[in-house]
Design a protein that fits this description.
Distance between the termini of chain A: 14 Å
Helix content of chain B: 40-55%
Strand content of chain B: under 5%
Number of strands of chain A: 17
CATH architecture of the largest domain in chain A: Alpha-Beta Complex
CATH superfamily of the largest domain in chain A: Medium-chain alcohol dehydrogenases, catalytic domain
CATH topology of the largest domain in chain A: Quinone Oxidoreductase, Chain A, domain 1
Radius of gyration of chain A: 20 Å
Largest sheet of chain A: 7 strands, mixed
Radius of gyration of chain B: 28 Å
Bound molecules: nicotinamide-adenine-dinucleotide, zinc ion
Largest sheet of chain B: none
Number of strands of chain B: 0
Structural class of chain B: mainly alpha
Strand content of chain A: 15-25%
Number of domains of chain A: 2
Number of helices of chain B: 6
Shape of chain A: globular
CATH class of the largest domain in chain A: Alpha Beta
Helix content of chain A: 25-40%
Shape of chain B: extended
Order of helices and strands of chain A: EEEHEEEHEEEHHEHEHEHEHHEHEHEHE
Oligomer: heterodimer
């Protein structure tokens, strides 16, 4: 089959590689219909995630058709069109039993600190991902769901990561009616988090980024106020000014390891790999939130240490909440919201790219060219 | 203002928000959200029909964190360990827990070695690497300048480093090779 393959930092290409096979009785093989590139893939693409091996196929946001099932599989069958959460999880370990699907203990031998994620380095289990014609889906009875007839394919696609993550992020912020919510990052996750904050009763939602075209989306798609941090002198002071010098009640970090806005932090993390991630946005969250407020961290950071301003967090009495999103827990409610017309997730997709052009798609998304918000890969184009 | 007990801006018009934003307040009740409570014991809803999943066969030795008591029932089989990078990775897993910086630094080091090994190997394959291969650089011609001219963009301050990250190792490697060749030639002359 044809598949996206990692060749080193900033380098990916499409290669022919053997089709995936059933390796465990609970596996299914899925023919990929659509696969998105996620902001998380950029951490791999930039070489920031330990144990990212040359030859791995990335892609953890995808939908497809079941082509083959292992002997133990009962809940999906050949021919089903399925949406597959980015989490690989067993459904039966201590953590899965308690709903912590993203923290499964039975799928990742390489690390106990992370669960399993498709195409996300060996630190997340060493599974090939969905930016390919076919993909192995472990525990097919647990993760995938059949796509309902009335759900658009591209909405289903975004439910497998970006939408569920943004919505989950808003929940971890513990928003109560009347809150002022700041969302750092106007990528897909930030846009969905901002949109979700309203559902939870926010009175004001302010989105921060330095990319004008994304802030435009934050205003139109997410109905938010915006701050371009590249155009203000000090974004923390700006956040204070806009909240009566109190600070925002809740701040959501939807940026993660490549955060910009501080040259030293960015370069030591993203270029020199001397810290697990650039904590610029996280530090802005800590300083911009009000005392006693909540920070929800959706942005992903590597397992190595990062220069986080923990002292301020402690002195301010903050609550920090975070996790990889347990995607499938969000689905029933999100489906309701989409059916009610509260969300039209696919509106954020800007690029649809044939698999053969995957290197171009990565560069556009990474360097933020051509107003790229969300690129989607079409394997059979 | 925080200097008094109440903030005037805390007042808001829920009806206006409801009119303007589809679905405003639909998930207002904090107790009625899908991620609440954080932990809820409900193994019956996951679709799993086993107590412990069967073991995926270990067809070749699979490295694992020493914080695990056993090999997990399922695991990925992409890019198995090989070469010098494989040896470094094996050491990182066998010797250091995830709590140790050495574990992650060895893995990061192995990642760099892996890239070099694969580049060199590719020159002896049907699909050799070249320095700009796979960087998607062609998109720069069309979109590079216009996209970067946007007001406020701060990433332009460091994006010039990206080519250094990509091409740097090649230049260093080339320089080292050149010096090696020079030394050999000089030795032969003497
Ligand atoms: N927790 C999860 O389950 C989960 C799931 C998906 C993605 N993520 C993470 O969420 C983050 C965002 O993902 P995405 O797909 O939206 O990525 P993205 O790269 O499209 O978006 C990140 C945005 O942050 C902006 N930004 C950079 N520095 C900033 C700063 N200091 N302040 C504010 N904005 C800043 C960038 O300009 C960009 O628009 C990533 O770190 C990703 O790994 C986490
Ligand atoms: Zn993702
Ligand atoms: Zn589990």
């Amino acid at each position: 089959m044809r598949a996206m393959v990692y060749r080193g930092p900033y380098k990916v290409r499409v290669e022919s590689k053997p089709d995936p096979v059933i390796e465990h009785p609970g596996d299914a093989i899925v023919r990929v219909v659509r696969a998105a590139i996620c902001g998380s893939d950029l951490h791999l693409y930039h070489g920031m995630m330990p144990d990212t091996r040359v030859g791995m196929t990335f892609g953890h946001e995808f939908i497809g058709v079941v082509e083959e099932v292992g002997p133990d599989v009962q809940n999906v069958k050949v021919g089903d069109r399925v949406m597959v959460p980015f989490n690989i999880y067993c459904g039966s370990c201590w953590f899965c039993a308690r709903g912590l699907y993203s923290n499964c203990h039975n799928v990742n031998p390489n690390a106990t600190a992370v669960g399993g994620i498709y195409g996300y380095s060996h630190t997340c289990g060493g599974y090939d991902g969905g930016q390919a014609e076919r993909v192995r889906v472990p525990f097919a009875d647990v993760g995938p769901s059949v796509i309902p007839d009335d759900l658009h394919d591209e909405d289903a696609l975004l439910m497998t990561d970006a939408l569920s993550t943004g919505y989950f992020g808003a929940q971890l912020a513990d928003i109560v009616e009347g809150d002022t919510v700041v969302v750092l990052g106007a990528g897909p996750v930030g846009l969905f988090a901002a949109r979700s904050a309203w559902l939870m009763g926010a009175a004001r939602v302010i989105v921060v980024d330095h990319l004008d075209y994304r802030l435009e989306k934050a205003r139109t798609f997410a109905h938010a106020e915006t701050i371009n941090f590249g155009q203000v002198d000090d974004v923390v002071v700006e956040m204070k000014k806009q909240t009566d010098y109190l600070g925002a009640d809740r701040v959501i970090d939807a940026v993660g390891a490549e955060a910009d806005g501080n040259f030293t932090q960015h370069v030591t993390a993203a270029k020199l790999k001397l810290q697990g991630g650039s904590p610029v946005a996280l530090n802005w969250a800590i300083d911009g939130v009000r005392k006693g407020g909540t920070i929800s961290v959706m942005g992903a950071y590597g397992p190595l240490f990062s220069a986080v301003k923990f002292g301020d967090a402690m002195n301010k009495g903050l609550t920090l909440r975070m996790n990889q999103a347990p995607v499938k827990r969000q689905w029933p409610r999100l489906l309701e919201h989409i059916r009610n017309g509260y969300f039209s997730p696919r509106d954020i997709i800007t690029h649809r790219v044939p698999l053969e052009h995957v290197a171009e798609a990565y560069h556009l998304f990474s360097a933020k060219l051509d107003d790229c918000v969300k690129p989607v890969i079409v394997p059979d184009a | 203002m925080p200097y008094t007990a109440n903030t005037p801006s805390a007042a808001f018009d829920a009806d206006e928000l409801r009119r303007r934003i589809p679905g405003w307040g639909a998930d207002r009740d904090p107790a009625d959200r899908p991620a609440v409570p954080r932990e809820r014991y409900a193994p019956e809803v996951t679709g799993a029909h086993w107590e412990l999943p069967p073991q995926q066969p270990e067809l070749r030795p699979r490295e694992r964190s020493i914080e695990h008591a056993r090999l997990t029932p399922a695991f990925g089989t992409s890019a198995p360990l090989k070469g010098a990078s494989g040896a470094i990775r094996r050491l990182a897993y066998a010797r250091y827990s995830e709590g140790r910086a050495a574990h992650w630094l060895l893995l990061m080091g192995a990642d760099r070695v892996d890239v070099v090994e694969n580049h060199v190997a590719s020159w002896f394959s049907k699909n050799p690497d070249n320095p700009v291969m796979g960087t998607g650089l062609s998109t720069e011609k069309t979109y590079g300048a216009s996209s970067r001219r946007r007001p406020g963009r701060v990433d332009v301050k460091h994006q010039w480093l990206d080519p250094v990250v990509v091409a740097g190792p090649w230049l260093l490697g080339g320089w080292a090779a050149l010096r090696g060749v020079r030394r050999v030639v000089r030795g032969a002359r003497r």
